[in-house]
Model the fold of this input.
Amino acid sequence: MASALTPYAAIVRSRVAAQATYRTSFAAEVAGQVFLTVVEFAEVYVIFTRVEAVGGFSYAEVALLFGLAATGFSLADLVVGQVEHVSRHVRDGSFDVFLLRPLSALAQLASSEFQLRRVGRLAQALVILVVALVVVDVQWTPARVLLAVLTPLLGAVVFGAIFVATAAVSFWLVEGQEAANAFTYGGNYLSSWPFDVFAVAVRSFFTFVVPTAFVAYVPTLGLLGRAESSGFASWVPWCTPLVAFLTCGVAALAWRTGVRHYVGTGS
Amino acid sequence: MRLLPPPRTAAALVAAGFRRWATYRQAALAGAFTNTVFGVVKVSVLLGVAAAAGGSVAGYDRLELSTYTWLSQGLIGVVHVFGWTEVAERVRSGDIAIDLARPLDLQVAWLLQDLGRAAYATGVRFVVPLAVGALFFGLRVPGSVWTLPLFVVSTVLAVVVSFGCRLLVNLCAFWLLDVRGLVTFYVLTSTLLMGMIVPVPLFPTWLRVLAYATPFPAIVQAPVDVATERLSGLDALALVASQLGWAALVLVLGRIVLARATRRLVVQGG
Done:
């Protein structure tokens, strides 16, 4: 196992060394990533200067949703978010290079375009998550502590799968990469709010098709002990591992099909 | 060198900007799709806020919140909210030297091409979210016949203000070789303060005062206020006049910076 990861670790180390060379640029980019989460949270802040609750969730509860979604998302973004650049490689034919080496094309792509600056986004998301967990009114039990720890990690798996599955689409729609943002960044945006505010069609889509409901909203209902009063059985908040497993299966299938479909630039 | 090019040259520059962006039809449709999905989330949250506040918030009722959402989502492509680094990249690569050799006023030429780009974006990225919004959430129909023409004028000025600000950020490339960090800060700050994420009237006082001290609300909040008739009659005209003021300010600043930059320009290698 360790030896299988050695080449990727070497690639990531070389990327990190390269990015850290220009210290001022690097510091500015990390700061930019921190600021990104701050601006995203500004929406929550502004809205709660006007009202006490949205969709039945208080400021602290929405901050918890935001923290869980943002932590899961930024972890996924750090590890595999760079696969969204696959469309560029498909367009100019440089994807060939990945297929020629005796390594996984997906892992090569993720490691060779690793962006260390994204730790800034993750750090800021973690700060919001920890503050929200402290402030929010939860009757802590060992099971709920486990749920709070597992949720951002499994959320990262779900978002990672969404990144890979939507990137796979660019093997067919080469110029359509921006549509993937609707499910990756859009999924993150949507998960920061209680699902109670969305129409049934939107809720169903983001529960059964692109299952971001399980990234923050459903587990949060479990933490707050509100699953049953929101119309879910009490075990539903514990389904995130299964959902993460299934989305990974779909993503793997989509990616393989995409790679098989790839024929180079044709010249 | 004259400031304004002859009308035929000007038309050719606008057309060039239009055609260049029209090449990427799939990308424009993908962008419109994403802006629409984000619009669904944004309008749902804002309607949830209105419901919690007893039907309306900061003077916005449900229909006005929907109209705000879909107009602002439609304007994302038109006013080019997200990163634009074309000029900075030409400075970095040294291609700017070729631009400077052309018998055209650079700032005006870039502006004309940007207007062509905005015209193309209106056809796809403005129309799609607005149509979806009208169909599923409803839009407020303006009460006055003057609202639509005034909205068009206001949107053109919004594009000019946005261009002026983006150009200023790009011109920093003459001093800093790497502008990526700066562009990130610019995009994030401007997106919030222009009223793209939440309407500026919902901001707490300190943030609202800060926003109106910048040109950013002139880029999104102003045309939306005109269209939703939050301000009407002379007040609406005054709002458009303030956009004109911001446009003049950022363009004049851009000229000064560009003039200073070209004086100190040393193209790579000599």
User: Anything to note?
Assistant: The CA atoms of residues 93 and 268 of chain B lie 8 Å apart. Chain B has eleven helices and no strands. Chain B has one domain: 7-263. The mean pLDDT of chain B is 93.
